[in-house]
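#struct-help
A.M.: can someone run this one for me? Single chain, 535 residues.
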Amino acid sequence: MKLLAGKPGWTVKADVIVVGSGVAGLTTALNIRSSGLSVLLVTKAKIDEGSTKWAQGGIAAALGPGDTPDQHKKDTLIAGAGLCDTAAVDVLVSEGPEAVRKLIARGAVFDTSETGEIALTREGGHLRNRILHAGGDATGAEVSRALLSAVNDDDGIEVIENALAIDVLHAAGGAVCGLTLHVIGAGSQDGVGRALSRAVVIATGGLGQVYAQTTNPSVSTGDGVALALRAGAEVADVEFIQFHPTVLWRDTNVGGQQPLISEALRGEGAFLVNDKGERFMVAKHHQADLAPRDIVAKEIFIQMKESGSPHVWLDATHIQDFAARFPTIYASCMENGIDPKTQMIPVSPASHYASGGVQVDLNGRTTIAGLYACGETACTGAHGANRLASNSLLEGLVFGARIAADIAANIPAQLEPVEDSNSGLLLDPAIQLPLQLAMSQGAGVMRSEKSLTDTLGILQQLSTRTTSHPNIAAWEVSNLYLLATAIVRSALERTESRGSHWRSDFPEVSSQWEKRIIQSIDNLGIWHSRTEVVK
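D.P.: on it. Structure tokens below:
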């Protein structure tokens, strides 16, 4: 399968192509360079416009006194609700501290305490203070700054901005040997071209724009997951979409990226209340407002449904030095007419993070030779049914390094692509809003057989609206459609409630579903599904 696109008019080459300029892509690129291989770094917008810079909370790692990787593992497994791959979690928590130290060595500066030690805070699901943060609530921006600085200093990394990865190029035998790209801009690389390489790493981030309201930036249309699906790779756990429980509520009709109100605020003592002024989380979980995100999002959804209100409230009025400690959140609130020092903040859930993605092994290899995936694009199994707060930046650091090591040890010779006779398909950009609204309504925080079946019907109707004019918006919406279909199909199949997947018609966890759902599409566009018992 492939998207409809123009004939390539130019060609570039590198040993390795990395698609994506967030923490996963940048870390992978820098580590690949340490083995002397050349890198082509492709990014959809400007190099600093991905999701990483929006990460407020921080990076989780067992660096504090008395903390251990085993304790971090236990918290991760609890949040993952029985679906974590324990080997992947072991890798994440045991290699995490060293990955963070390497990031610091590359120039990342984290907040410190009065004694000069790195300041560690706590977020939902963590039983210890192990979250490093920078600039209060601007950790992602600092991580991005440090990694970008290192990339800019490396002449062996060529960067192409404003480039959408359309589809992979296959060699005879099926191995991936490059990509087709569309570059927006003047010069010889304007329009569609071929980028050839000996390995391709997809690190394009999330797919939040599949929903009407999300914390993700507009570029997060899941291009990497969709590209891998069309290439024949398997995807796993895609039904587990984490909805961040506390996103600044502005208006029901305001779509797209919403201002995130970091969990770190609750880590510092903020608490949730309903319209009656009741602290509803206290009676729902022993960690109250710091319960895992899926539990908090569900309870907020219930409170909203019972009251008829489009939001609940977050009371942070008692937090000292709010503006200095949380400058990004403070600015977002003030821009929307709320002074969090004296007023409660209206919050509601919005799509935030995909725990599933392209199925990979412990070295980031997909089921297609030559194709790797890292970060939110990938499903390592480390997150299970629900990602533990601040494990995402850590995953990009740890598995980016592992991918680079695997490529350095096993990279093949450059293969030549074979012609794909498939003419390709493209959907009308006008279906994006109806698709997003259908997904939010029927496949959002709460799901049921009826809501999912209705959503699948809407998606099938929308798929008949095609276009013969290739463009960025059409490629993006075609990717969103593919991902929406995968999410709904998997959510229909999982007849239980677990982690961030909540079925109102199957409200309990079922031991029969201690397995992941793995999907793929064949060359005829037919979906295939299988299950795999969690290790």
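A.M.: thanks! Residues 472-493 form the longest helix (22 residues).
D.P.: also worth noting: The longest strand covers residues 345-354.
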